[in-house]
């Protein structure tokens, strides 16, 4: 497990939340019959946290410079996200292209192109290799962040930020309602659509923009109790059987999980250091991006090699590969990002700000 003392810019409580989310994803991929809703909960937690963090970065840019520095923003996202993705794709080409472990060699290059262009969530363009279909989440995020900075700037300049955020939420929810009606006979089709879970990113963003008001509502005394209730609510959702086929989960899951995640963020962001007992979960949070990238394909690969013990082996191999990715790829590029972002500062030993930001 990597050291958690990687950067003074990281918030340990939020890394803990990432660790919680990635554990849910690992559980769902290994034991889907038990943890039917864990994958959805984990992914939507990531989406909500992303909306919260990225909106903070964008608003800070506007306040300091009067605008969003788009080139800087997209450069930093590319430095943070692309190297680990490229590392995964190299492994994918070796395992399924060269070795052809699961007889998918013919699908490799189409899958690589879709993954590299963040288009795996577009109907009709899904990767033909099933082991990489999980990359729809990355596509959702990057497509959202092509639009979201423009909407924020528009709202700030027109002094109608609340209306813009509300309008974005309404549009997404209407699109979700329409797709539910159209595809009510095959709800699993909705799972990877760009509109299905994007509302969680808007909820995270809205929480960041309304943090003064939320601080008055979720006071310091209330935060532990609110967070405890949020964890309880999320854990109930984790055990929903066959959540991907549930109309209720699609209709209200994004909003509900997003709201519960905000309650957790409001408590965890104030924790300066986590207890020693939580350090393993904190370490998982640090490598959560790479762990997410590797776990689904590893599950496919290990299932063929060890059909009886793969549910236990897949998470172990995932954590090992994610740790390699962190030390070999992500941490060096995070340091590079810190240097190009603040060229006059000393960055010895620094990584970038929170994961996937």
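^ Assign residues to that structure.
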């Amino acid at each position: 497990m990597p050291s958690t003392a990687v950067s003074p810019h990281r918030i340990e409580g939020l890394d803990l939340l990432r660790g919680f989310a990635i554990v849910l994803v690992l559980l769902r991929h290994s034991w889907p019959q038990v943890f039917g809703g864990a994958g959805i909960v984990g992914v939507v937690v990531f989406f909500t946290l992303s909306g919260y963090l990225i909106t903070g970065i964008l608003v800070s840019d506007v306040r300091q410079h009067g605008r969003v520095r788009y080139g800087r923003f997209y450069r930093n996202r590319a430095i943070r996200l692309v190297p680990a993705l490229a590392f995964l794709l190299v492994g994918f080409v070796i395992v399924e292209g060269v070795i052809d472990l699961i007889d998918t060699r013919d699908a490799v290059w189409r899958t690589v192109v879709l993954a590299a262009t963040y288009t795996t969530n577009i109907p009709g363009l899904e990767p033909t290799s099933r082991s990489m279909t999980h990359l729809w989440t990355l596509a959702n995020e990057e497509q959202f962040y092509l639009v979201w900075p423009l909407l924020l700037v528009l709202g700030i300049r027109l002094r109608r930020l609340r209306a813009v955020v509300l309008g974005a939420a309404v549009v997404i929810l209407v699109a979700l309602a329409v797709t539910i009606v159209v595809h009510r006979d095959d709800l699993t089709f909705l799972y990877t659509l760009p509109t299905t879970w994007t509302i969680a990113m808007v909820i995270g963003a809205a929480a960041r923009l309304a943090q003064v008001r939320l601080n008055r509502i979720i006071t310091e005394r209330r935060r532990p109790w609110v967070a405890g209730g949020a964890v309880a609510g999320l854990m109930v959702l984790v055990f929903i059987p066959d959540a991907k086929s549930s109309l209720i989960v699609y209709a209200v899951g994004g909003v509900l999980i997003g709201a519960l995640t905000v309650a957790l963020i409001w408590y965890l962001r104030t924790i300066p250091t986590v207890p020693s007992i939580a350090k393993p979960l904190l370490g998982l949070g640090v490598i959560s991006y790479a762990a997410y990238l590797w776990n689904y394909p590893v599950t496919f690969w290990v299932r063929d090699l060890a059909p009886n013990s793969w549910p236990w082996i897949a998470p172990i191999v995932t954590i090992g590969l994610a740790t390699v990715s962190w030390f070999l790829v992500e941490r060096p590029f995070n340091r590079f990002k810190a240097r190009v972002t603040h060229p006059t500062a000393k960055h010895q030993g620094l990584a970038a700000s929170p994961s996937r930001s």
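The chain is about 70% helix and 0% strand.
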